[in-house]
Specification:
Elements: E1 20-29, E2 32-41, H1 47-64, E3 68-69, H2 74-77, H3 83-86, E4 125-128, E5 131-134, E6 138-141, E7 144-150, E8 158-163, H4 181-204, H5 208-217
Antiparallel strand pairs: 1-2, 3-8, 4-7, 5-6, 7-8
Helix pairs in contact: 4-5
């Protein structure tokens, strides 16, 4: 039987610029496992699509930059990823993240943000993946892999996240007027990191078109 992931004339349909696409990607590598989701729109998104996307991004950023005491349960901080959506009566019906193994399972127990997960401690890898979905219309998810690291605070030990997925977000869908100065600052720092780490590798592989795309997509 053909693989469910192979296109066929019966089930395939053309991509158009008139709708949103959610691409959940990942790979198993000898030095780690990735699970990254990006949502994009190549045309003119509706005001609702743009606002919903921006609020999902705000939740992703708010949880990613959170500083919290060591041994805090993931369930305690989970709502930071939802707050920007809750503010306008939106929500999503799945978990905010799951542990990710190192060359192991993509969904690796027992790390995560559910009430039955273990407390967060430095060295754990988790996904951070808020979303928003409208049945039959569109779906949004922004998923990054994050490493739990020690935060630079006066009192120790506090923790925060270091996002290790280095993929730009879709500028076409971001409503900058909704973002706080801190969120914009975070975004610019993230884009700077992507440029510094991914740019030279694309040049090394002589992927000029991809390098130009990266530069455009990571402008401050």
């Amino acid at each position: 039987a053909p693989s469910p992931f192979s296109p066929s004339n019966g089930s395939s349909r053309k991509l158009s610029v008139d709708e949103m696409y959610l691409s959940d990607t990942g790979g198993q590598y000898l030095d780690g496992t990735t699970d990254i989701t990006r949502t994009m729109h190549w045309g003119q998104p509706t005001p609702l699509q743009k606002e919903a996307y921006t609020r999902v991004l705000m939740g992703n950023i708010d949880l990613s930059r959170l500083v919290f005491p060591a041994n805090t349960a993931g369930g305690t901080v989970e709502s930071f990823a939802r707050r920007a959506l809750w503010d306008v009566g939106l929500n999503y019906g799945h978990g905010t993240g799951h542990g990710i193994g190192n060359f192991l399972s993509v969904h690796e127990w027992p790390v995560g943000f559910q009430s039955n997960n273990v407390p967060l401690s430095a060295g754990m890898f988790t996904s951070i993946e808020p979303g928003y979905y409208r049945d039959g219309e569109f779906g949004i998810r922004i998923e990054d892999v994050a490493l739990v690291v020690e935060a630079q605070t006066k009192e120790k030990p506090f923790l925060t996240f270091e996002v290790v997925s280095l993929v730009p977000y879709d500028r076409n869908l971001i409503d900058l007027s909704l973002l706080s100065p801190e969120q914009i600052q975070y975004l610019n720092a993230y884009y700077k990191t992507i440029r510094a780490r991914v740019g030279p590798e694309l040049q090394r592989q002589q992927l000029e078109e991809e390098y130009r795309w990266l530069q455009r997509s990571t402008e401050p």
